[in-house]
Amino acid sequence: MALPIQDLPAWARLNDVSFDNVEVTTTVDKGYGVVSQKDLAAPEGTVETPQLLAVPHDLILNSLAVEEHAKEDKEFKQLLEAVGHHTADNNVATPRQRSALPACSTVLLPTVWTEDERPLLKGTSLEVAVGAKLRALDNEFEMIREASSDIPYWNGLLWHSGAVSLKDWVHLDALYRSRCLELPKSGESMVPCIDMINHSSDPSAYYDQNSDYEAVLLLRPGASMSKGQEVTISYGDTKSAAEMLFSYGFIDPESTSESLVLPLAPFPDDPLAKAKLVAFGKAPKVHVARESGSIRWDSNFAYLKCVNEEDGLDFRILQDNEGNQQLRVFWQDEDVTDQISEFQKLVAQTHPLPEVLRLRVAVSVQENLEIHLEQLKSELPRHDSSTVREECLKHGLLLRQIETSLLEDAIQALEQEKNSLLEAENVVAYLGSMETSNSDLVGEEASNEADDFS
Ligand SMILES: C[S@@+](CC[C@H](N)C(=O)[O-])C[C@H]1O[C@@H](n2cnc3c(N)ncnc32)[C@H](O)[C@@H]1O
């Protein structure tokens, strides 16, 4: 059970967490946060800047700590083993008995949005991503339930009493994703108290690990803070608005990269569609970004989608020494199966008419972006404040606005690219030859028809 936040100072003392001139408080719009209790400064170039927080190593929760905990907790160990994870029996330091932690504020990642809130993502790059994540969490939870159904303790919790449900699993995932840190020595970890620090595009602090493996929060060189000012860190400045919303439940337009990733599908009438999807092995996507003011797009699958046998694409089933069958991709008679994640580069360099191919891919990508833009611009279902939380509405609408603007510019950039490709010598000659062969065909058809009527 979680403790009330007022108990945090006592909990910190009991667990040797040191707060140095900072304290936890409630912020206006970000839940809890940490503020400075006095004026603080670290001149530019300072090597050892003031420490604001230190959390002992044995309170850091990472995969190793989970293993250690399993050695102390029989039921937990049984659960790990049931899902196929075996804990090594080596001797490790006994972990600190973890007492209940003070509660953190509500997590509002899109995976925990309600049925009324999720339509805000319609047409955005998160629509498919959130659906896929929820399906993956559902599968994981079912796998855990099935695998542990013979263990009386877990059978009671997951089947009979219903004390733990899929909703808890989804919530746990959201808590983990929004609070985990990448520590230099302990790797991906959750760290109590340091996980109370909010994000800013102009952060005053950063986290690190000292020689005792403690997780520490330090003032940034060059930073200064006045009493009562919020201490902030950066959650990253290269993440897109969608990534920020997906992982943290908010968007800070000051520190997001202008990019998005959209799903892509093969042409519905492509006889090679299935083979292309299997050989590609990942969810097909197109990546669009604005970098230094210009639009850039790339998609390995879009290239695979737009080439066919006449270009030199081939699929073959090969049998290895053990009799296993493998689908292999050939491009101009070379086995390129292992280069499929570089297909765009490979094909662009070796296609006999690279501009013609680029034009085909640009047309297909532009069509895909137009479909998403149309959905983004279509009217949203009615959302009233009794069923849609203010924060979800604010960040959902912000994502729609950011992605609409990027898609509009990308579609325009693709239009320009198409127009200049249409003027390329190769393309003009190719289109000319197509016209000639088409009119020959029409001529032939006409004469066939004449034959038929004769
Ligand atoms: C690591 S926790 C930080 C502590 C958190 N505010 C709490 O009350 O427990 C990360 C969460 O804080 C909130 N948050 C952090 N920085 C924010 C910001 N700049 N704007 C809005 N919410 C923010 C988001 O809900 C995010 O998922």
TrEMBL record:
Residues annotated as signal peptide: none
Name the UniProt record assigns to this protein: Podospora anserina S mat+ genomic DNA chromosome 2, supercontig 2
Residues of the SET domain: 20-236
Organism: Podospora anserina (strain S / ATCC MYA-4624 / DSM 980 / FGSC 10383)
Domain of life of the native organism: Eukaryota
Lineage: Eukaryota, Fungi, Dikarya, Ascomycota, Pezizomycotina
A GO term for molecular function: protein-lysine N-methyltransferase activity
GO cellular component, one term: nucleus
Matching PROSITE patterns: SET
